[in-house]
């Protein structure tokens, strides 16, 4: 399969309705954390997903009070930062507070991401509303994200033609693109274009009132959720303009620092996070379902990126990404322990990387295009830049 596919079939879109309800068809949760399984030697056969998920069952316990506390705290901080933007007297303080507000949007979104997976609380309806509320500052329509992320990305991680998030072109596909699109691809993958990629390719084209070409399946809830975030955005901007007039400030400055800066910082953050989750010289992409299925993609296509200075915790442990792909029901406040368990049980099987800017820009330099036959990354000229991934058997 070499043709790109940016639309969902009705069958794929409907699959979301069959997602298990919290606690349904799942073994009884244990009261204590998961016991450590015996490490499986690298040479031994790889365990199936059901076995691996069974190790994480005790860590799938959800706490509604804890979830509500996280929700309330992050929203309060976000509101306080926006109030600070209005009250600050200097432009640079407004910009700094706007940047922090953008990072808080990312934290709120991660809470919503858990709610969308039904892993935040034990109440399905509450999860849906918490998800919609925490998605509002990022202007993310809940139902469209639910289909694109839960069904497509998690269902077909790194399968070309299905998973569209940071999907690389082959050399032949790249050369067939219009010149303008080739230029954009170079911008997106230069290490500095992650935010622009998310803003244009994901949010604008696939989430915010997407065209029928981008989303073939049409549902009323998609339109309602798009209208909800559009109304929230308009209210947000309108409130800043009103406050600017009421306090004798520049409306342009207040909207710029209170809305534009946070929104752009959010896009830069999520674009970066999505990029490093599944882009690595040791991560393979596949263009056939049979090869992809044999590769155990829920483990082999994800990266655990380690940060210092508490950054991982500040991002609600979203970087413990292997555990999340193995079992989406594990809530964010238990992902660190789930990831540690997997790394104990599967030594040498999980891609672990300590973050540095040097590593990041080297990765961006090497991961431009993908050779789906040789299973390796290449530059824009088709020259191999990574080792060949093993052929799944």
Question: Residue ranges: pLDDT <50 for 5 or more in a row?
Answer: 1-31
Helix/strand/pairing category = mainly alpha
Number of helices: 17
Biggest sheet layout:
2 strands, parallel
- Sheet with most strands: strand arrangement: 1-2
Instruction: State the helical fraction.
Output: 40-55%
Count of domain modules: 1
- pLDDT averaged residue by residue: 90
The assembly state of the depicted protein chains is single chain
Question: Terminal Cα separation, in Å?
Answer: 19 Å
Total number of beta strands = 4
Task: Report Rg.
Answer: 21 Å
The topology string of helices and strands comes to: HHHHHHHHHHHHHEHHHEHEE
Strand content is under 5%
Shape descriptor reads globular
Quick tags:
393 residues; mainly alpha; two-stranded parallel ribbon; two-stranded antiparallel ribbon; 4 strands; 54% helix; disordered N terminus
In words, what does this structure look like?
This protein has helices at residues 10-14, 49-56, 64-87, 91-116, 124-135, 142-153, 171-176, 179-188, 194-207, 220-247, 251-278, 289-294, 297-300, 311-314, 321-326, 335-345, 357-366; strands spanning 303-306, 351-354, 369-371, 376-378. It has 393 residues and is mainly alpha-helical. It has one domain. The protein has a two-stranded parallel ribbon with strand order 1-2. A hairpin with a 4-residue loop joins β3 (369-371) and β4 (376-378). The model is unreliable at 1-31 (pLDDT under 50).
């Amino acid at each position: 399969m070499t043709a790109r596919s940016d639309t969902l079939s009705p069958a794929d879109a409907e699959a979301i309705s069959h997602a298990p309800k919290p606690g349904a068809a799942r073994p009884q949760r244990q009261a204590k954390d998961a016991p450590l399984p015996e490490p499986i030697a690298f040479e031994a056969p790889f365990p199936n997903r059901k076995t691996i998920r069974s190790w994480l069952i005790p860590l799938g316990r959800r706490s509604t009070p804890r979830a509500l506390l996280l929700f309330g705290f992050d929203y309060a901080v976000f509101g306080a930062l926006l109030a600070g933007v209005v009250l600050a007297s200097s432009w640079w303080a407004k910009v700094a507070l706007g940047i922090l507000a953008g990072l808080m949007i990312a934290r709120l979104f991660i809470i919503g991401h858990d709610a969308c997976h039904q892993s935040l609380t034990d109440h399905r309806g509450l999860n849906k509303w918490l998800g919609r509320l925490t998605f509002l500052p990022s202007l993310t329509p809940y139902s469209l994200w639910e289909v694109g992320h839960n069904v497509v990305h998690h269902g077909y991680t790194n399968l070309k033609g299905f998973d569209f998030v940071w999907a690389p072109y082959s050399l032949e596909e790249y050369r067939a693109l219009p010149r303008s699109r080739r230029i954009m691809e170079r911008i997106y993958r230069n290490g500095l274009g992650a935010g622009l990629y998310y803003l244009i390719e994901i949010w604008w084209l696939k989430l915010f009132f997407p065209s029928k070409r981008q989303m073939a399946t049409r549902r009323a809830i998609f339109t309602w959720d798009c209208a909800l975030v559009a109304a929230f955005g308009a209210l947000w901007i309108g409130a800043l303009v009103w406050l600017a007039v009421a306090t004798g400030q520049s409306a342009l400055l207040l909207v710029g620092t209170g809305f534009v800066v946070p929104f752009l910082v959010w896009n830069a953050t999520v674009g970066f996070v999505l990029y490093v989750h599944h882009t690595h010289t040791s991560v393979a992409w596949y263009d056939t379902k049979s090869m992809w299925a044999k590769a155990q993609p829920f483990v082999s296509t994800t990266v655990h990126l380690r940060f210092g200075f508490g950054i991982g915790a500040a991002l609600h442990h979203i970087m413990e990404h292997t555990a999340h792909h193995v079992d989406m029901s594990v809530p964010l406040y238990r992902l660190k322990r789930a990831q540690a368990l997997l790394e104990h049980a599967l030594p040498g099987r999980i891609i672990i990387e300590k973050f540095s800017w040097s590593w990041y820009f080297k990765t961006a330099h090497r991961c431009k295009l993908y050779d789906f036959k040789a299973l390796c990354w290449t530059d824009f000229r088709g020259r191999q830049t990574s080792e060949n991934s093993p052929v799944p058997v």
